[in-house]
Amino acid sequence: MTAALVRILGDFDLAEELVQEALLEAIQHWPKEGIPEKPGAWLLTTARRKAVDQLRRQARFRNKLAQLEGELMRDDTAEGDDRLRLIFTCCHPALSREAQVALTLRAVAGLTTIEIARAFITSEATIAQRIVRAKRKIVDANIPYRVPAERDMAERLNEVLAVLYLMFNEGYLATAGEQASRRDVAEDAAWLAGLMVRLMPDEPEALGLLALMRLHLARARARFDDAGNLILLQDQDRDRWDRERITSAIVLLQRAATMHRSGPYQLQAAIAACHSEARIWAETDWRQIVALYDALLEQMPSPVVELNRAIARRYRDGAGAALADVERLTEALDTYYLFHATRAELLRDLGRELEARAALRRALELTANPAERALLQKRLS
Prior knowledge:
Elements: H1 2-9, H2 12-33, H3 39-56, H4 62-70, H5 79-90, H6 97-107, H7 113-120, H8 124-140, H9 150-172, H10 183-199, H11 204-217, H12 243-257, H13 264-277, H14 286-299, H15 303-317, H16 319-327, H17 330-333, H18 337-349, H19 353-366, H20 370-380
Helix pairs in contact: 1-2, 1-5, 2-3, 3-4, 6-8, 6-9, 7-8, 9-10, 9-11, 10-11, 11-12, 11-13, 12-13, 13-14, 14-15, 15-16, 16-18, 18-19, 19-20
């Protein structure tokens, strides 16, 4: 809806306001009158009517009003086109990388400012300021609302994929709110990644990202118990994994491999594939996983990747070797809850119970996800 209205109005703020008003009207009418046969069309029609009402009161928008009244609001079949246009508009090279990602997560994914701030590990005020400045830049620079020509797509590809990756992560394990996971957001990110693959079929990193998402979603049914508690990978019922989705992801990875342009998303997908192909936890190929993390660190050096490699080393080389790697990350990851949760597990393995409990308490302070909090509290008790 936002994308369709931005296409017509060229105004992010007005489009978002109209969408909110249409949703509020749905909340008022649908419980009494029932959900319409085509809810998307109902919402778009309502938003369009509200846009006409608003623009009639603003003489400076006469041209936009004429365009809006003459424009047929398209149905759901146009959603992919509109959202791709909006993604590429938000990821225009005239905007900074931080602004691109923040604006796209807000306008295309519909994430709240606080959710985006948590994904960036920064303040809500900083993200709000980035979004406002990005919208202003799009207007001032007259950035067109369209999918760029093929020759210009490559320069925006990394930003678009980064946005979809962050969007998926927020849906797969929420950083804020009452829900531990927002499956609809994760599925939406995978759907958009599929659109990118169709648009750019010869880009191996787009294939790698889609494969990574499918591999994680294949395990979605086994990640939580009936009470909503998080089930760790080693304890999941692998019979509940979606084998068809796993197979389709591996086909995508194999297709990307034929292009001989390895990248971070392909490597992360290969790591997920190693887990997915193991029939039981004990058969996990930790040597291969550590090797893949080594390759990933060469292409995408980061403390979080180093932490994940250390976790893999725990199962290959033992808790002592893994803890030595983790301790080196203290300064970089002191505000990251998984650092402290990982450290707690390693300390417990080594019989250092008091230190392990202190690390668990620190991890608990740093996460707002209800399922993660429940898991940490269970370990503490």
